[in-house]
């Protein structure tokens, strides 16, 4: 079954015994600080409206306390909202009965955690098949599925090892293989790579992008790191104090920051190393010769620019994992997207 989009509508979460009582006050302008100081309640999420496209990576980014982990836990309803909807395939997850919610969690969602969440007494193989066991999948089929994904994430030969015999990066690969083995429509990744060393983190990002190019899952990825958000996200939503400050593609956010807060995030970004070809490519409208250089849609702008320069070509054909043409790329667009924009002008933005 093809993945479905996720629609989050008018979502509020106020932590405290009488959260619903203060929703209207927050709507009327009561701040997070005042809600806490005056009423001893904590504003977790404020009027969240996000369309998470099917088959794409939706990144939710923000600093500590921004509400990003609270948000992802609403999608599989580990947290109940104060008010609002989380729709998947037209069904509001927030209104599901216990049996329906249990089936949704088992078959439609899989989660990868920052702390790996592996069972220490189970081997790599036993951890990977854990979700399939819960689903009641026969042992032979479970191990066949698990082996496929252990091979895919580079853990062939480690099936009998225990978590304490693995590095952090290898443990996270087990977590990813376990989630993928469930073949769920939605993959929820909460700061999944944040605990890893920088080089291992980059490697895991590459693994995820390669797998996503093949599977086209609906992935919700939580991070506090802008470079990671820009590299992974088809769409990005940036939270601050529980509210969405800006959302759009990586290129939208980097080149057109909504306010000074966003500008402070993006001004030092090396765009060529984090913005992907697919955010710059255009539909194929011109005939390209048979010798046109080909670049993957998941490639970075810096990689595409090098390939085009090495081939002495100003146009390139953008292809997916199967080599099918999905767009075209102009070297002028690549260069323009790599150039740092002018400083954000708040008055111009307000006027627009």
What would your notes on this structure say?
The chain is of the alpha/beta class. The protein folds into 2 domains: 6-270, 3-Layer(aba) Sandwich (Rossmann fold); 273-338, CBS domain Like (Alpha-Beta Complex), CATH 3.90.1280.20. 39% of the residues lie in helices and 22% in strands. The protein is built from 16 helices and 13 strands. The chain has helices spanning 23-27, 32-39, 68-75, 98-107, 124-128, 130-135, 139-152, 168-181, 198-215, 226-232, 250-255, 260-266, 271-274, 301-310, 331-338, 346-351; strands spanning 6-15, 42-52, 57-61, 83-88, 91-92, 109-113, 186-190, 218-223, 235-240, 243-248, 293-296, 315-319, 325-330. The strands form 3 sheets. The protein has a 6-stranded mixed sheet with strand order 6-7-8-3-9-10, with helices on both faces. Strands 2-1-4-5 form a 4-stranded antiparallel sheet. It has a 3-stranded mixed sheet with strand order 11-12-13. Helix 7 crosses helix 8 (168-181). The two termini are 42 Å apart. The model is unreliable at 342-352 (pLDDT under 50).
């Amino acid at each position: 079954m093809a993945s479905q989009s996720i629609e989050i509508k008018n979502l509020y979460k106020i932590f405290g015994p009488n959260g619903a009582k203060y929703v209207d006050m927050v709507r009327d302008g009561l701040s997070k600080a005042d809600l806490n100081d005056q009423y001893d309640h904590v504003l977790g999420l404020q009027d969240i409206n996000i369309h998470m496209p099917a088959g794409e990576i939706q990144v939710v980014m923000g600093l500590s306390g921004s509400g990003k982990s609270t948000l992802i836990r609403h999608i599989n309803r580990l947290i109940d909202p104060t008010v609002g909807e989380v729709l998947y395939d037209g069904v509001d997850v927030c209104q599901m009965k216990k049996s329906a919610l249990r089936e949704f969690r088992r078959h439609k969602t899989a989660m990868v955690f920052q702390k790996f969440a592996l069972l220490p007494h189970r081997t790599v193989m036993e951890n990977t098949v854990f979700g399939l066991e819960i689903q009641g999948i026969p042992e032979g089929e479970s191990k066949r599925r698990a082996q496929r994904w252990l091979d895919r994430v580079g853990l062939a030969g480690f099936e009998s090892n225990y978590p304490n015999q693995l590095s952090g990066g290898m443990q996270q690969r087990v977590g990813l293989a376990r989630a993928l083995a469930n073949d769920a429509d939605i993959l929820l990744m909460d700061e999944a790579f944040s605990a890893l060393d920088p080089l291992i983190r980059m490697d895991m990002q590459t693994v995820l992008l390669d797998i996503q190019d093949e599977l086209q899952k609906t992935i919700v990825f939580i991070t506090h790191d802008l470079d990671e958000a820009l590299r992974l996200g088809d769409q990005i939503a940036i939270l601050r104090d529980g509210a969405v400050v800006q959302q759009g593609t990586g290129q939208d956010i980097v080149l057109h920051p909504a306010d000074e807060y966003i500008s402070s995030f993006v001004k030092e970004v090396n765009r060529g190393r984090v913005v992907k070809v697919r955010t710059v490519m255009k539909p194929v409208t011109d005939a390209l010769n048979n010798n046109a250089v080909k670049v993957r849609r998941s490639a970075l702008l810096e990689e595409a620019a090098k390939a085009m320069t090495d081939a002495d070509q100003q146009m390139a054909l953008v292809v997916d994992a199967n080599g099918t043409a999905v767009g075209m790329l102009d070297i002028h667009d690549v260069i323009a997207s790599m150039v740092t924009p002018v400083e954000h002008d708040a008055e111009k933005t307000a006027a627009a």
